[in-house]
Fold this protein.
Amino acid sequence: MSWIFLSLIYAVFNAIYTTFNEQHRYNGYVLGIWRGFGVSILVSPLLLTVPLINSAPYYVILIMQGIMIGVYDSHIFFASAKYGSHSCSGFMATCVLITTFMWWGIDFRELEDLIQKPHLLISLFLILCGFSVSYWQMMKVKISHRAEKYLYPAVFALALMSIATRFIAIHGGKVYTGVIYYLTVSCFTSGIYNAIMFLRDMQNPLAIPKEISEETVPTRKELLFAPLKSGNAVWLIIFSTILIAAKTIALREAENPAYVIAMLLLSPIIIDIYKTKQLPHSPMSLSVIIFLGLLLWLVG
């Protein structure tokens, strides 16, 4: 049951992550660069404390994971700056169902066990559907077709990342080893991805930091070092390290990665509680919490 507590930590720090660029409006690729390289460099000395993994497929998964992180990070950072964090979070509700079906297609044992217990399978499916629909209604998301199209890669990236994270955590041997390899290799790869995308983007940036005047087009150097000058790059690296570590361990211990993603979608409620200083009281918010409670009761 420790995965529930770790998933809650993941949700709290994800709330910081999804709202981070709503106010600062940094270039999304730049934040991906600082997050990827920063976390990797911070944790890299700990590679000396873990055994060397001699498995080519393991490193392939780590690199693929890094690319997916890069896609997810840049899309969320850009989208939160343009459309707001609530629009991003609301659209991610579909990720719970996508992750569930993807995992059942990979891990036949879990699906076979559920088929042997039809009442459990039907209950789980109804709860997941109820949770996703209630969450969507709670967010009351109204986004343009352009925003919807832009966020689709992030939805599928998160689903694939969750499954890949579970593979990395389990096949790394000890929990600690898997976390270290994720934080170093995958995060470094995500930094490379965002650096390449940042250099390829020859158009005007989609987001301009508040530290830079919007009346002038900032240079690449100004965009790149804006998070560092304000000190926000340091905070991004620190809370990202905690977020990834908690997520990796939770996904290793949970039976289905979708359960962790369901906990992750508490982030907007956590943000609202922080902003309003009040507990959620709307029917849809309570419905989300009830369905999540039923899910934890069913699979816990």
Observations:
- The CA atoms of residues 54 and 172 lie 10 Å apart.
- DSSP finds 14 helices and no strands in the chain.
- The first helix runs from residue 2 to 24.
